Amino acid sequence: MKRSVLTRYRVMAYVTGVLLILLTIGVVAKYLLDMDGAAGFVSVVGIAHGWLYVLYLVFAFDLGSKAKWPFGKLAWVLLAGTVPTAVFFVERKVHREVAPLLTDARPAPAQA
After folding, report:
1. Of the residues 36, 44, 82, 95, which has the fewest C-beta atoms closer than 10 A?
2. What phi and psi values does residue 103 have, to the nearest 5 degrees?
């Protein structure tokens, strides 16, 4: 498996996780604290998280299919982007598991 497959997944995992935390803070500010401007923030961050979560799903599915994960594990990784902070823990575990499977596409430097 190429390193880029894991890198794409990791980047989208972090982006999705950060946006979900921001969205959670915005929802708390909007509904519990009744703050002005929170509705616009929730709208913008919610839309961004929604679209980028779809990319996360695509990259996570690509990684899972290349790593030949069983359906249960793949489902857990796909759902991690919907639980605040879960994606960070799942990403670390996935990285530790998949790192030994990587093949480096770059040729080895010539020895003198």
Report:
1. 36
2. -115, 135
